[in-house]
Structure formats: structure tokens, C-alpha cells
Amino acid sequence: MQEVRGSIPLSSTTMSVTRGDGLALDIQFNHGWVSFSELAELVVLAERAGFDTVWVADHLSGGSMNAPSMPECFTTLGGLAAITSTIGLGSLVANAQLRPPALLANAAATLQQMSGGRFTLGIGAGASPDSPFAGELTAAGLSIPVTLAERHAALVDHLESMKRVWSRDRDEQFAGFPLPEPRPKIIVGVNSPELARLAVHHADGLNVRASHPKVDEILAIAEGRIESSVWVAWDAGLFDDSDERIRRWSAKGVRRIVAVMTGKPDKSLITGRC
Which position among 91, 126, 217, 239 has the lowest Cβ density within 10 Å, counted as fewest Cβ atoms? Predict the structure, then answer.
């Protein structure tokens, strides 16, 4: 059987990347639980084990992910770019409320250069004022758009503004801003059909929690239009090609699964697959 980096075969006889019969298998560690040297070791092991992409969360406080601390997302990704060579790198997801569009465009372009084109920008609309995640934004002195419509509009503004900064025929005011080569793929972290429709019009893909109550509707909106991916808490079944979930996700157009270690990362789970 042909070996494909970071894929989950649906059967030993039908796996074919060109036909889409394999799902890319990614990993996300809760990096608030480990030092950078420990995270680096985990990511190098994940690269060796054949995971397609490693994703890094974007929070200011460890409390947002039940961790003691939370190193900054893009700084962490830059460090990981320097010690890896083949595994993809991505933000899951960058909070549009944390950075102005031009700053986010610069950070993403820089990571694309540092990684040799391995970066994917995952981005989300951010938390509502009454969300458990709002506290870190308030502590940082950031204002939070009150309504869902305002947060969605701000996200669209970020996406379109970044594309203008990255454009080859951009306004001369952006002369000297780094140009990514190639432009990073953009995926939107979605939690509603409305946001999924925005992703279809403004991004290259979307990511949704596999257990979301409207996951089928969200995936149907994306199918055939942009790439769909799901995230799910790490479990051994994700490595079993007979797992019913894999077939179900594939049938709904999913092409990527992000396995998330929600607690303190367990190195033995990776070393056993190298």
C-alpha cells in the first residue's frame, strides 16, 4: 500500500490522495502545559510520525484552555518553523479581535517565509462579551464587538484587508510589507451556518468541532466549494481505518481531521507511532 504522509486510509485497497480517499491527520497540543523545548520535542516527534500539520491555539491566558499559561501563538509557530522541515504549521485559530489586519497579514507572511511555504492561517471571529473566553480580552484592554453581526463583519474586514496587503498590485502604502510566497491558505474556524457561508465567500476552507450540533449543515454548506476539516479530542479510534466516524466524515466532504490533546500532552502517544 502506498504510504501517504499524514493520511488516514479508508481501506487498504482504496486509499488514493488524488481521489480524496485519504483524510489528512493533524495534531494540536495544548502548549500552555509545556515549555517550548518540550513542545519542540513533541512537534519533531509528530513530524517523524507523519502527521500532516501541527496547529497552535491563539489565546492570551492559559485559563482559556485549562492550562497554567499560554505562550503567544505566532511567536511559538516561528520557533517551530525553525526546527521542522516537512510538517505543516497553522494557527487554530487566530483571534481576529487580537490584532489589526495589517499586523496579522505581516505575521502570517513572515511565518510563510520562515517555514518555506508550510503555514496555514486559521482565523476566527473571536468571543462574545459574555463568553468564557472574553476575560483575557478584557484583561488586555481590548474592546469586544457586542453583536454576532459585528464580529462577523470585523472578520470579513480582516480577511479582505489582508488580501489587499498581500496583493501583487497592492496600494503603494503597503510597499515594503512582506509578501508571502505562496499566499497562505486561509481557513475559518466556524461555529454557525452563518459563519460557514462567510467562509465559503472569503476563505479557502473551514474548520468545525466534530460534535457541533449543526455540523452536518455546516459541512453541507462547504462541500464542493471549500475544504472542510473537523477537530476532535484525541482518541485511539482516529488511527483505526475502520472507525465509523472517519467514513461518515469523508462522506460529508471532510478532508482533514485535527486531533487535539486537550490536556497536558502525552509524549508516549506520539512516540508509539514513530
Answer: 217
- Beta-strand relationship, 254-261 and 22-29: parallel
First CA to last CA across the chain, in angstroms?
18
Strand partners, 227: 205
Give the largest Cα separation in the chain, rounded.
Answer: 55
DSSP 8-state symbol, 50: T
Instruction: Encode pLDDT of 130-173 as tens digits.
Output: 999 999 999 999 999 999 999 999 999 999 999 999 999 999 99
What the block records as the C-alpha cell of 130 is 459574555
User: How many domains is the chain partitioned into structurally?
Assistant: 1
C-alpha cell at 32: 500552555
Closest Cα partner for 78 from 35, 119, 45, 121? Answer: 119
**Are the C-beta atoms of 187 and 206 separated by less than 8 Å?**
yes
